[in-house]
Request: fold
Amino acid sequence: MLNLAVFGSGSGSNYQAVAEAIKAGRINARIACVISDVKEAYILQRARNLGHPAVYLDCAPFKTKLDGAAEQRAIELIKQHGGDFIVLAGFMRIVKPGLLNAFAGRIINIHPSLLPAFPGLEAGRQALEAGVKETGCTVHFVDGGIDSGPVICQRKVAVLPGDTVETLMNRIHVQEHLAYPEALRKIAAGSVG
Ligand code: GRF
Reply:
């Protein structure tokens, strides 16, 4: 069984999709804790609603990475809650070698594009500006790079005439909520990683 430590900075809809899939018996896992670097992030409220430990982690003085004392605190928090596998779900910070080494091969992320296309911020806008006909989402293992690392699964989304960033991202989100549980189901079943 996987003991998931979920990290997020925002709404947490992917976390919720994973939690529901676990509850429905589709993934052999449990949510050990939910950690956010944003005190008011809705992901923490969702965690409280679902009865999972919800922890705010102050990541100062850094703005874009999880490093230093906060990284050490994150590792302690995960261990304290019995976590052994990290799920990045809209966590807006770069994870550094301290965490990567402590959970080698056991950190995954979801990104709203068909990687390696459109890594980094605003993947939906990047896809629209590039004029591609198809984009999607990717669940991948995390390595030292930005949205790099071995792909676990991808789901495609057509770019439609008249799409705005918002309409496109809404359809990508629907696919993300299928892709993340699917990737975790495979990992928990031992067929990936
Ligand atoms: C998703 O689009 C995910 O691909 C990206 O951040 C967003 C998180 O959304 N990494 P949510 O917080 O799970 O609703």
Notes: The first strand starts at residue 2 and ends at 8. DSSP finds six helices and nine strands in the chain. The mean pLDDT is 97.
